[in-house]
Amino acid sequence: MIEIKNDRGKMSLRETLFWDIDLAKINANSSRILIVERILTRGNMTEFKQLIRFYPLDELKQIVVSIGYIDGRSLNFIAEYLNIPKQDFLCFRKKLSNPVHCNF
Fold first, then answer.
1. How many structural domains compose the chain?
2. The whole model's pTM is what?
């Protein structure tokens, strides 16, 4: 387990969420986009609940709309949970701008 601390408390996350990152370099402020993205796409409900308590709601909203990729299921969940239209998410706008080829 890796512990991340800030002035609001601490989170205990699985190291497997950050398999490709040097764990010593993870910081609650400078790595916040990475932390939120990994918890949303690969985390479990316990880690999500910690995330909600760890970052202020307004800050969390700013972070999630700026993430470049969130899978469809996670995007639907977080958009509903935070009451943010999907059109406000960068990952949603990116997906719309990439045409999909038809499979015959």
1. 1
2. 0.84
